[in-house]
Amino acid sequence: MPRVTSATPATPATSARGPARLLLMLGLLRASELTCPPMCLCISDTASCSSSGLAKLPLTLPSFSVTLDLSHNHLTWLASGSFSHMPRLENLRMGHNYLSSLRPGAFHNATGLRHLDLSSNRLKVVEPHYFQGLWRLEELLLYNNKITQVEAGALSGLSSLKKVYFSLNQITHFPFFSIREHSHPFLAMLDLSSNRLARLPWEEVKALPGLLQRGLYLHNNSMICDCSMYSVLWRWDAWGYDALRDFREQHVCSIAGDPRASIRLLQQPRYFNNCTVERASAQPVAVLLSNVHVSEGSRLLLDCPTPLSGADLSFSWLSPRLGPVSAAEPLLHLFANGTLEIREAAVNDSGLYVCTAVDAGQSLNATREVNVTVVPGEADSFSTGYTTLLGCLVTMLLILMYLYLTPCRCGCCKQPKPPFIPIVTYDPGAFPYSASEPPKSQSSKHVAFMEPMTGDAGAEWTPES
Ligand SMILES: *[C@@H]1O[C@H](CO)[C@@H](O)[C@H](O)[C@H]1NC(C)=O
Ligand SMILES: *[C@@H]1O[C@H](CO)[C@@H](O)[C@H](O)[C@H]1NC(C)=O
Ligand SMILES: *[C@@H]1O[C@H](CO)[C@@H](O)[C@H](O)[C@H]1NC(C)=O
Ligand SMILES: *[C@@H]1O[C@H](CO)[C@@H](O)[C@H](O)[C@H]1NC(C)=O
Ligand SMILES: *[C@@H]1O[C@H](CO)[C@@H](O)[C@H](O)[C@H]1NC(C)=O
Ligand SMILES: *[C@@H]1O[C@H](CO)[C@@H](O)[C@H](O)[C@H]1NC(C)=O
Ligand SMILES: *[C@@H]1O[C@H](CO)[C@@H](O)[C@H](O)[C@H]1NC(C)=O
Hints:
Mean pLDDT: 74
Strand content: 15-25%
CATH superfamily of the domain at 37-272: Ribonuclease Inhibitor
CATH topology of the domain at 37-272: Leucine-rich repeat, LRR (right-handed beta-alpha superhelix)
Bound molecules: 2-acetamido-2-deoxy-beta-D-glucopyranose
Strand order of the largest sheet: 1-2-3-4-5-7-9-10-11
CATH class of the domain at 37-272: Alpha Beta
Helix content: 10-25%
Low-confidence stretches: 1-18, 26-33, 278-288, 379-387, 410-465
Structural class: alpha/beta
């Protein structure tokens, strides 16, 4: 520790022995090309000074280092040009320090930087000069600071950026408009989760490069529920974007801004039944919701009714487990009329199925959702099978009593469990139909599926055509 202090006189002239110290410093500086500060470990191209109690940057950092680790120290500021004598520096780790702002030129001449970790510091505002000139920077870690504001030019000029992490800050507004395809062609991840973004400029968000939309993390913000938010997030979810898939539970929004009335917007889509999910050309696209309950092992047909009517309609389905349904899927079949067949529903087939009908001719498409719940077979096959078995036993008992131990003619005992389709007809109670949808006398092939337009969805939803 004492040696650190002696090696870092920030203002040599203040001391009476200034010139002597300056000479000493220059000597050390020359030696620094080969030597390593005593509190650091220098291995080939890496200098690690983490957890060394540093309050200031050591002056004698090896100039040839590619990686410099200064994390877990007590750094509160960086002088201008702190790293300008390290031309090969690519990875700079300064997480877990006490930096509250960066002075102009802090990274002057550190243009080789590709990975910069400033996470878990105390930065408040990200100013435009912070990362000026770092055009090779690919990864920028700013999570867990105290950032309330990211100024508009803060990321400009960082044309190599691939990933930026702003999670766990207090950001209320983000300059989405400053990120464009031509300015940030490689940006594939922008993490803004766990901030304070209440309302986002969704038109700006929708104008972000497609690559970035796939990697935009917005969960755990105190967002206010509205249709424009839902239509964007719903789409990204339907397209299987990881940010939505991996953090479904944390996509919450509050009704009318009341934090006590918060809903998980991807799991309670009913609240958004009145929303119209818009196409790019602002033409309405119907989102129809319905619920289907079936028991395990049954055959399920999901229709894809659509307000579109064209000669060349094509249909695609997204399965919650398999993603886009391909023709090669053994247990699923997609009919040309859009109906999806699940041959033997398994419990893990439950979830939200999304059908999209595309009219290529008119470039229109419409989407519907079906929430499928597959209940384990035991209960149902027990209750229905039980009735059959009981009847059989009674019959058998009667026969036995009548014939005094004549063996059962087992046509009755061995009768297999009836296939599910007849069961439904006989015993609708075996299937927990949603109460609002009384099972109709459907054509027997469509047993499991509610007629979509006439049920609850139809009552609340009036698709515009
Ligand atoms: C920055 O780099 C330029 C060119 O590489 C060099 O001329 C200049 O002296 C450097 N500045 C500092 C402060 O090292
Ligand atoms: C959500 O964000 C808050 C701060 O906004 C944070 O304290 C909390 O840990 C976050 N939750 C998760 C699960 O990340
Ligand atoms: C689907 O239905 C199940 C059970 O009824 C429910 O728990 C789940 O939240 C529903 N999911 C959606 C997206 O509506
Ligand atoms: C949807 O619209 C219906 C009829 O206009 C209305 O009664 C209902 O409250 C609306 N639901 C929501 C969640 O706004
Ligand atoms: C679609 O075709 C399949 C197989 O021909 C049929 O079972 C199903 O009922 C059809 N669906 C509609 C909505 O016509
Ligand atoms: C889903 O369940 C079926 C049988 O119940 C099983 O064969 C299959 O491996 C399961 N798939 C996954 C992804 O868990
Ligand atoms: C729906 O239509 C829009 C605009 O034509 C298109 O960008 C989008 O890819 C379509 N969606 C699907 C799933 O085909």
